Structure to design on (891 residues):
């Protein structure tokens, strides 16, 4: 076998770009629905077409890619469907900002011209996120890329809308909805993010109309009082029994409104009296309906006060608040103002404060759909992993409200409903109608609204495979195998896909839902631009390579636990990539011209060979178990531990004498096992580190076959060798103990040592004698004496370590200047003690503990613990050296 020499350094930029291009051009990831292999399928959570790869995308798509590459190795026909979401509000906002630079609004252009601009933008910029996913190494079937507004999906959306409408599951009606004055559109309830906000609670006097007293209400939004139509108190509140049924005068508006009794009122909040504004609060609307109250809308869709607000008409809602408070104070109605922290709803897109208001919108009647979605998880048709997320899933579906699906924007799937000017009837149809379905009239105009973006993405698992046609893809790959997603869209997307998949496909859209956690910064804080703690995956890939980033995310992806990410951790795993490269370089250099065995010997004689082959069987089992159960961190850590600490640090070091020696049989066997194991390790590492493993596999195998097509290594359980593992563990303990003595005593690495090993029994003695050369080479000895404990005396002037059945000693006479070492240790102890005292003093300072951020305090505690451990070791070494000084003085 002949190999081109492997460069000393791994130049990831060139290698990554080359393999991304090769995989795409060769269509390595194309799925064949006619294949006889068992299916495995995933649909990508479609990123917004406006998006750029962030760390959440990097984690999500790395985990999906690991599963897809692994399943290909296991013999599955894998379909991973890529695509993007049209992101109605977000994309429209981007293009509106773009044309605003030209002094234009969408209304200046008109709907048709504006949509042309959006499509132009999509053609120019919409592929960024897809190119970034390819750069990440995502092994999607790029020939099947979909877009939520491509022709096939658009028709499917219309079909779904029409069918649900005809089944009575979609309707149009006046209901309270959340409205975003910035985006100028309705929002579904779950598109409203409640944020804790520092506000004020205003206590306002409402005088009784009979002139005898007043009722004081408390509100956080005094501007809405202009639309009050009642004051409510609890029917059993003794403070207000005398005013129930009376009338108060609404301050500033001088309008009489009734005092009503309703058990909804919280007697403990504020004054126990609640102002009722049915036009601007969901709960007030329900109370208003119950008591037949008038509804007044004093805040318009643009956040400007309406004519119903009287003299405050035309003011911005926040300016109106200031004016109302000033006028209340001036009129003697403002009793008190208190600081008050409360939750305020914000638009999940633009972060503006939303306004509840009554509006005519389209809704999905969700209750029957939600019941089936819950049943599918309860009976096990779909698993949610980790299981703790089931509670959130059920809780939301149990309390689900009808879904507002109409949006007052232009970019999106336009609602397929037409209104007749002659009979006022509504025609809902898949194809554009020529005439009204009710009266035959031709004066029709289509609804101006578009559908909620999540409506089309709820159909993603089956529409991307060609529904409503009965395609081979649907027959082969639906239901999909697993959905990998973040918990933040469990309700936005997962629950809705469940509802739609069950309704239209009569089966769940996925068998498993793996919910991964958030990627946070090193201190556990959520990443945000405002905090300046965002770690950009594109920058990290440029700096450390894609494999290092992917491995870092995977190594910390423990189920149910957020990832605390830092650049230092990514840099750390860059060293692991280099370790893989350098180990491969060593193996490739030493199999130059060698003809490797096609099949490894069943039971090699040498202990190190038996040990590493046995350990590899355990790794195979660990990798399979971890990935089958979505324990990505265990998969990564298992391979990291084995490759670095067993294959590299021990096995390759042990066999170097064979690789460089003159015994042809020993050399050939060492070459064969080292190369075969490396090949198999590259296969196991490939799902998480696709680039470096593909490059090395090509160099090692010398074949044109891509590593993406390689099979998972076959299990050989008969290679499990507990005796070899036990014996090797003892040898490693002895060697490590001798190495530790060298380090603790500050003996230079180049100094060859004398060692004595006292064995508890004949088995241990025979093991050490048989592997004498390994001990001498790896512990860097020039002399090794092995004997039974009852036969040999404990050596003088030596430092020892105890392993299971073996006492190992390093002879220090002539190697160590005891007095100099004692002084060195004393100096080091003093330095560490001083540092530890400073840290402990800081931790004893109550002011520091109270004022410092939690992560700073935690770091100081870790530092104190680390210094304490180091101090303990130094003191133990000092005692050991002092004992040697005494022993030497006694002759």
């Amino acid at each position: 076998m002949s190999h081109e020499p492997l460069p000393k350094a791994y130049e990831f930029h060139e290698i990554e770009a080359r393999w991304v291009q090769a995989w795409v051009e060769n269509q390595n990831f194309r799925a064949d629905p006619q294949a006889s292999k068992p299916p495995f399928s995933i649909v990508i959570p479609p990123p917004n077409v406006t998006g750029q790869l962030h760390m959440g995308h990097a984690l999500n798509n790395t985990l999906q890619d690991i599963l897809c590459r692994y399943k290909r190795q296991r013999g599955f026909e894998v379909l991973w469907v890529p695509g993007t979401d049209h992101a109605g509000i977000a994309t429209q906002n981007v293009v509106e900002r773009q044309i605003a630079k030209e002094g234009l609004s969408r209304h200046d252009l008109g709907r048709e011209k504006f949509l042309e601009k959006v499509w132009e933008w999509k053609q120019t910029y919409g592929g960024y996120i897809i190119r970034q996913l390819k750069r990440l190494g995502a092994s999607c079937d790029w020939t099947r890329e979909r877009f939520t507004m491509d022709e096939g999906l658009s028709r499917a959306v219309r079909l779904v809308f029409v069918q649900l409408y005809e089944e009575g599951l979609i309707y149009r009606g006046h209901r309270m909805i959340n409205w975003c004055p910035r985006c100028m559109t309705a929002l579904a309830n779950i598109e409203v993010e409640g944020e804790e906000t520092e506000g004020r609670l205003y206590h306002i006097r409402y005088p009784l109309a009979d002139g005898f007293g007043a009722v004081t209400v408390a509100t956080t939004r005094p501007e809405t009082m202009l639309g009050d139509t009642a004051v409510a108190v609890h029917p059993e509140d003794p403070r207000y029994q005398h005013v129930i049924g009376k009338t108060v005068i609404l301050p500033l508006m001088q309008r009489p409104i009734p005092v009503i009794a309703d058990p909804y009122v919280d007697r403990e909040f504020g004054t126990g009296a609640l102002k009722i504004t049915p036009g601007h609060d969901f709960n007030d609307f329900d109370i208003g309906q119950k008591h037949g109250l008038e509804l007044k809308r004093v805040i318009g869709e643009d956040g400007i006060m309406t004519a119903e607000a009287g003299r405050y008409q035309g003011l911005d809602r926040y300016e109106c608040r200031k004016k109302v408070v000033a006028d209340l104070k001036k009129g003697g109605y403002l009793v008190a103002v208190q600081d008050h922290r409360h939750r305020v709803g914000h638009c999940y897109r633009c972060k503006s404060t939303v306004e509840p208001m009554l509006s005519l919108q389209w809704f999905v009647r969700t209750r029957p759909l939600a019941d089936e979605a819950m049943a599918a998880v309860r009976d096990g048709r779909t698993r949610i992993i980790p299981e703790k997320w089931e509670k959130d899933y059920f809780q939301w579906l149990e309390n689900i409200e009808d879904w507002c699906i109409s949006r007052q924007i232009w970019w999106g799937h336009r609602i397929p409903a037409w209104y007749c000017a002659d009979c006022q009837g509504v025609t809902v149809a898949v194809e554009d109608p020529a005439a009204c379905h009710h009266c035959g009239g031709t004066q029709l105009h289509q609804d101006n609204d578009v559908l909620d973006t999540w409506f089309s993405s709820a159909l993603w698992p089956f529409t991307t495979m060609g529904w409503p046609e009965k395609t081979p893809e649907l027959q082969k790959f639906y239901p999909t195998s697993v959905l990998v997603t973040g918990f933040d869209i469990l309700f936005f997307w997962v629950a809705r896909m469940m509802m739609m998949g069950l309704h239209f496909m009569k089966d769940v859209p996925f068998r498993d839902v793996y919910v991964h956690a958030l990627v946070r910064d090193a201190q556990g804080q959520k990443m945000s631009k405002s905090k300046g703690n965002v770690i950009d995956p594109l920058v990290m890939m440029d700096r450390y390579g894609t494999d290092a980033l992917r491995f870092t995310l995977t190594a910390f992806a423990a189920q149910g636990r957020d990832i605390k990410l830092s650049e230092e951790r990514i840099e750390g795993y860059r060293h692991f990539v280099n370790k893989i490269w350098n180990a491969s370089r060593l193996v490739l250099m030493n199999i130059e011209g060698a003809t490797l065995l096609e099949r490894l010997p069943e039971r090699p004689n040498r202990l190190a060979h038996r040990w590493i082959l046995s350990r590899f069987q355990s790794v195979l089992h660990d990798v399979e178990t971890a990935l089958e159960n979505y324990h990505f961190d265990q998969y990564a850590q298992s391979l990291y531990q084995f490759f670095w600490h067993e294959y590299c640090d021990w096995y390759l070091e042990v066999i170097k004498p064979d690789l460089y020696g003159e015994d042809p049989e020993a050399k050939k066997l060492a070459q064969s096992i080292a190369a075969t194991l490396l090949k198999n390790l590259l296969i196991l590492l490939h799902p998480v580190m696709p680039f470096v493993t593909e490059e090395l596999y090509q160099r090692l195998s010398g074949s044109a076959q891509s590593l993406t097509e390689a099979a998972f290594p076959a299990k050989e359980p008969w290679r499990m060798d507990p005796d070899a593992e036990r014996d090797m563990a003892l040898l490693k303990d002895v060697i490590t103990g001798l190495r530790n003595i060298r380090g603790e005593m500050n003996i230079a690495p180049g100094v060859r040592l004398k060692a004595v090993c006292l064995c508890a029994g004949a088995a241990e003695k025979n093991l050490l004698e048989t592997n004498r050369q390994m001990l001498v080479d790896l512990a860097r000895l020039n002399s090794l004496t092995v004997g039974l404990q009852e036969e040999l005396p404990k050596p003088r002037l030596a430092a020892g370590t105890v392993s299971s059945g073996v006492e190992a000693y390093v002879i220090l006479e002539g190697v160590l200047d005891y007095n100099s070492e004692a002084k060195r240790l004393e100096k080091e102890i003093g330095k560490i003690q001083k540092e530890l005292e400073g840290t402990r003093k800081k931790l004893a300072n109550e002011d520091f503990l109270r004022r410092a951020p939690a992560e700073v305090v935690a770091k100081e505690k870790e530092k104190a613990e680390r210094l304490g451990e180091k101090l303990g070791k130094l003191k133990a070494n000092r005692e050991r050296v002092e004992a040697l000084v005494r022993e030497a003085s006694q002759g």
Notes: The chain has 28 helices and 29 strands. The CA atoms of residues 299 and 305 lie 5 Å apart. The mean pLDDT is 92.
